[in-house]
Amino acid sequence: MRRHLAPARRLLIVGFAVCFLGALAAPAAQAPVKSSKAKPLNPADIKRLDVKMEEVRDSFLRETTTLIKSYEELGQLGRARMLLEALQKLDPRNEPVKQKLEQLNGQILDAGQFTFEIDAGQSWQVVGTVAKDQPIRIKVTGEYKLATSFTSGPDGLPADNPADDLVTTIALGAVMAVIAPPGAVNRGNGNKSADKPPKPFTVGSSYEKSADRDGVLCLKVNVPPGSKCTGQLTAKISGVVQAQ
Q1: 235 and 177, same structural domain?
Q2: In a domain, 35, yes or no
Q3: Looking at the domain assignment, is residue 124 inside a domain?
Q4: Residues 196, 178 share a domain
Q5: Does residue 81 form part of some domain?
Q6: Which tens digits make up the pLDDT trace of 65-106?
Q7: What is the pLDDT of residue 120?
Q8: What local confidence, expressed as pLDDT, does residue 119 receive?
């Protein structure tokens, strides 16, 4: 049992240490405590405590760096990223930490990549779930042919419902995506919900950005309703929990 609890206890200790050291790192921002019985300030005592604080900080950074490396070696990339994010909060200007976090995010995306076939002639297609602030990467290859057979009046094509109609803010024929609220999407029905649907965004041939909310990722090609599409589009997707 101890063996299973150890990683969680380490993460808890690290989180506490980040908060504690972060508070110590900015003493100037704190107002001095007034007390009628306060002792006179001794510069030598303050200097000694500051030196001790730096020692504690350096020790914390070394131990955390070692723990991150150990998690990486065990393949626990999510835990390693959690610790790196804690270090970044403690020292936002630390460029090596920033670069390492970017590298680790890339490794996590590569490890979770899967292939999804996009049917260009269909409405919104459910890919899987995404989490707020977690990176999503989508790369689309292939081509398709578009044939339309519809009648339009002087007002043009309807675009009232992004789930079914042409989205005028996105290039014609482009792959687009939407993150729908959890539970609001059924396979084959895309983004239909009683609430106002979220705004679709362009994916194109390549897209990489963090999700702005928790939800269900859906993909669709921006073609007019009733279009006939032949061909194949293949998407390599990372950062998404694939729908079953």
Answers
A1: yes
A2: no
A3: yes
A4: yes
A5: yes
A6: 888 888 888 888 878 888 888 888 877 888 888 888 888 888
A7: 92
A8: 93
What pTM did the predictor assign? 0.63
pLDDT at residue number 64: 84
With residue 220 as reference, give the H or E element that holds it. strand 215-221
Residues 106 and 123 in one domain: no
Same domain, 98 and 189: no
User: What SS3 state is found at 10?
Assistant: helix
| Helices 2-24 + 77-90 axis angle, to 10 | 20
Which two tokens mark 105? 């995010």
Q: Which of 137, 55, 73, 64 is nearest to 96 (CA)?
A: 64
Is 84 among the domain residues? Answer: yes
Q: What is the DSSP letter of 101?
A: H
Number of neighbouring beta carbons within 10 Å of residue 203: 24
pLDDT tens, 107-147? 888 888 999 999 998 989 999 999 998 889 999 999 999 88
Cβ atoms of residues 116 and 223 within 8 Å: no
Determine the Cα–Cα distance for residues 137 and 240; give it in Å rounded to an integer.
Answer: 8
Average predicted confidence (pLDDT) for the chain: 78
- Are both 91 and 125 inside the same structural domain? no
Question: What CATH number should be reported for the domain holding residue 128?
Answer: 2.60.120.430
User: Which domain range does residue 55 map to?
Assistant: 2-26+43-111
Q: How confident is the model at residue 220 (pLDDT cuts 50, 70, 90)?
A: very high
Per DSSP, what are the bridge partners of residue 241? Answer: 129
- Interior/surface letters 73-93, b for 16+ CB within 10 angstroms, e for the rest: eeeebebbbebbebbbebbee
Clarify whether residues 130 and 99 are in a common domain: no
